[in-house]
Structures
1.
Amino acid sequence: TSPFSLSFPPSIPIGEIVADAEPQGQALTARVRPFSDPQRLRVVVVVTWPRDPADATADDVPAAPPVTIPGTDVGGEDG
């Protein structure tokens, strides 16, 4: 698990990657051999980031959605 998780303790091993990750659209797909029985799992989420922030590109970070503040022009098309 991730040390950045707010829901789960960090460093809990969940599986071993047994095949290289391959691009699938904007995601990567990797084959993982789980350390537990997958039939007993309720939720699985995998999030990865570049190991070194200097290696990150603009494509690695999702764009923030536009924000509209009621009663102001901020965030509107007239902006």
2.
Amino acid sequence: KTVTIVEPCPSKTSVLTLGVTCALLVLLYVSTIFCYYMKKWLSPRKMMP
């Protein structure tokens, strides 16, 4: 028995959108933490532009 979705289901689109949104949020979170720690490690303490 094969389970295939023939008709376009709105839940599939919402799941895909949710997955993309979660992926973007995780990417933003990781990049923010990465930039924060790279600034913290690479720059001296009292370096203000």
3.
Amino acid sequence: MASSTGEAGTLTSASSLSARVPFTFPEVDGEQLKSDVPPIPPPCNHVNCEGCWKRYPQSLFPNWSPSQVERSGILDVIEKYNRSIPCTIHRVDIDDRGYFTDPGKYELTEQAKDASWEFLIQSHRPVNTRVRSLFVENMSGPVLQKLGAYYNIEPFFFSSSLSWTPSRFQEEVQPGRGDRKGCALVLDLLAVHLIRNVEGNTLISYHTSGREATSAPFLQERMHYAGQSVYWQNIFQRSPDPTFVLLIFIWVAICAWDEALEALYARICWLETYALDTSDIFITRELHIIRAHYFQFPSLLEDVRKAVVFILDTPNPAMDSLPQEEKQFSRTLLEKECRNLLSEIHRLEMSRRMQDQRLKNALNLVFSTTSINNSKRMRKLTEAAVRDSTVMKQIAYLTMTFLPSSFVAAIFGMNVGEISPGTNETLPHYFAIAAVLTLLTV
């Protein structure tokens, strides 16, 4: 989700849920077509430009018309940011010995915009610094413009990051000097812009302000902690290539994936046990929700894989200035580390498939258990119906046996003149009253 250009070139990578393409043709601006301003302005030394950052991105990229800046979302960040919250830049430095240090964080407030620009354009890093990593928290409009103007960042990096649009490309590569490289991973946004240059390497990590997003302090802490390990110390001591810093970011994402799948696996095991012990059909709702997320995971893991392949296929042009033996050693080491990452991604995909199969098995188990329980209930109902039918038959047999004799006894017990002489009632009266009562009853 990034793009950029600069003196030494640009390399940017991104991954996202959306399928938007960052190079969509904007609406044609008639005024821009009539303009005599060159499409590529001369480089700015940031000394007597009177704050060229205030006109970014048009100051460096005249083709970005005001309407395009507005549609890309950059204008909203420039004008509608929260001025009461300072932007904090957390830093990690890597020196030429491969040591990771924390030079401290730097806050950029609304009241000190010009002072922060002077701080940015003046070099404050030690001379032996190989890579300086900047983790931007609560990025404001002025900070976006300052970083973009000073590091000559293509606006596509910010527009793609703001809209979570995937993009990977490299431009203006200068052999023996350097380029720029970026990477972004989503669902949680990870947008990284790496400037690889023989004069100094700089990494910029953009962090969205979402509540559940990975924060700048968290990622800065992970980067600093990784630098304390013997494994990464050996890599940075043996190779001067700053590209290995990007691999740390990818490993952070891989570890997050591993933890997420582990938590989901524990939940799936509990759901399987619960499905065995109960016939609650409502458990299928949670199973379907989890499986819906699993359907999304393959595309996200594929984005991670593409990011690793992109890093592998875009070597650092600045490495051309090194001796062939040292250059080949760094390249071999980078290929080995990328293969390790690709192997981990494949393992995560296999784990995802296995868990998806267990989810499917749990769903089938719930449906099978429910069907078996329904069959048992139907069997009990059938047995009860059979018992009721037997009782009804017995009642019918008893009725058929005693009804004739009871009828005869009732007839002979009637107090009518035909049977008992001297009474006033007759059989016609009996049948008339019985017929009327029968009709009323029916």
4.
Amino acid sequence: MKEQKNYSGEFNRFDFSDYKDFIVKEEEKKRVYIFDSSVIIKWFSRIDEANLTEANMLYEKVLTREYNVLSPELLIYEIINVVRYKTNVPDTEINEIVKNLFELLIVIRLDSDIFLEAYRISQNTNSSVYDSIYLAVSKKYNTVLITADEKLYRNSVPFNFNIKLLKDFIAEKDDF
């Protein structure tokens, strides 16, 4: 099996110009997305839930590197916490889940600017700071945030954030 390069540890502040060996062509930038934990947790779910098929379609795109996913560190904490308390994933699989997350995602360390922007966004949208971190990262990197969280979507749309519901994103794309 070909060993994948782990890009997570290489970025304190993500910049496309620092990302040359991963995204070679300018047109590939449009294939960089942010998925929040409401999407990614579905990759590891053992229960039938809304948009599971759509989430798995995105998973296939990420596995084949057709889509590249930026993720704030927060996502790792959220996924581990959900697995711990709200899923029926066996504890023995947590190592594999964490390993997969770091292999598939580009994990971004959050800086003070993102935290402060997330706080402002949280105030404006009446969303949690946790959810607002994804919006702040999306804004900073001018990238679409894909979510399955309808409340976050409803709260964000009036403020013109670049956010799509998972089901709508899949319906609009022509590469599925």
